[in-house]
Amino acid sequence: MSYHNIITAYDGSKASEKALSHAIKLIQGNPGSKLTVANVLVRPAYAFAGYGMVIPEGYEQQIKDHQNSLVDQAKAKIADLPYAKVVILSGTPATAILDYAKENMCDLIVMGNRGLGPIREWMLGSVSHHVAQLAQIPVLIVK
Predict the structure, then answer these.
(1) Which residue has the higher pLDDT, 45 or 66?
(2) pLDDT at residue 29 in the model
(3) For an engineered disulfide with 3, which of 30, 47, 80, 108 has Cβ 3.0 to 4.6 Å away?
(4) Does 106 have pLDDT greater than 50?
């Protein structure tokens, strides 16, 4: 089966690097197909239950710099593909990816099998697991 509108999640992890490489190969095998590389900007909560956190000086800039670095890395990897782009999404990663895929009529989601550390994944569940469970289109999880 060939896919014509693929979205792949990219967070700079080894797993997302592998997923992006695989998505690029799929696109190269189907001329005219589109590839969207999605990076989800996750902002930590600064306040909870009436308590606030002191944000270290320069923290917002560090987040922005990291985001820009990831976007630049992704753009470099897809520079030779005529119908490829990088988008920055915000919100909960799984929801943001699924919403984008639905709104843009993607026909395949490609993701790495893990991006979180083992403790965060155990506590929160993996993004790829949530996407695979809730997606209405095929999901390819690359190991």
Answers:
(1) 66
(2) 85
(3) 108
(4) yes
Q: Are 78 and 86 in contact (CB under 8 A)?
A: yes
> What's the alpha-carbon Rg for the chain, to the nearest Å?
16
- Rounded-to-integer distance, Cα 132 and Cα 47, Å: 31
Domain hosting residue 43, numbered range: 5-142
Buried b (16+ CB within 10 A) or exposed e, 13-22: bebbbbbbeb
pLDDT tens digits for range 67-81: 899 999 999 999 999
Contact yes or no for 138/109 (Cβ under 8 A): yes
Count CA atoms within 13 Å of residue 112 on its CB side. 19
Q: How confident is the model at residue 124 (pLDDT cuts 50, 70, 90)?
A: very low
Q: Cβ distance 71 to 86 under 8 Å?
A: yes
**How many structural domains compose the chain?**
1
Q: Name which of 88, 143, 66 is nearest 111 in CA terms.
A: 143
Q: What is the CATH number of the domain that holds 135?
A: 3.40.50.620
